[in-house]
Amino acid sequence: MRALIQTPAPMQPLPRRSALRAGLGMGLCMGLLGRAMPLGASLAGTLLLPGCGFKPRGAAELPFSVVFLQAPSASAFASELRRSLRANRIDIATRRDDAPARFELLAEAQERDITALSTAGRPREYQVRLRLRWQVRDASDRLLIAPTEMVLRRTITVLDAQGQINPEEEALVLRDMRTDAALQVVRRMAAIRLP
Length: 195
Hints:
Low-confidence stretches: 14-44
CATH superfamily of the domain at 66-190: Lipoprotein like domain
Structural class: alpha/beta
Distance between the termini: 80 Å
CATH class of the domain at 66-190: Alpha Beta
Shape: elongated
Number of helices: 4
Strand content: 25-35%
Mean pLDDT: 80
Radius of gyration: 27 Å
Largest sheet: 5 strands, mixed
């Protein structure tokens, strides 16, 4: 039995006059390169990414290596922030005097509102909110980040005929919001410029 082997069609040579000289622009030039040399076009795109400001998500570089967290022991957000800081190789001080920076959680609240009703008048959609108020001080009690309020919102659609929200789904949504908030706080702390 003979196997059929297909050979690719030969590539057409690019016109002698370059696309840029012809005034066709960079987009067409990249298109021609992409058809003629797929590997070359993808490499060119990869090399151009850093020039456009793209940066892969990685560890944030904080201006200090130790932080003291001043928050209620039962705070779920404080636990998530601890994890996020440790992931960025920041140590958590057990004593206030041992850290050059102090994160203070001033308020944490979870809220829920009905945002849509079904035709039967039962809740169909909820908005869940995580509201945080926090600040950062240095060792000499100067404000590095003034009191800041963050409000994260998520929408949960209810599939239950009675309009009851699924507690497990709400818990997952809140955990996702706390993770997002912790990452935002770490990014803000990375922007601090120490005197």
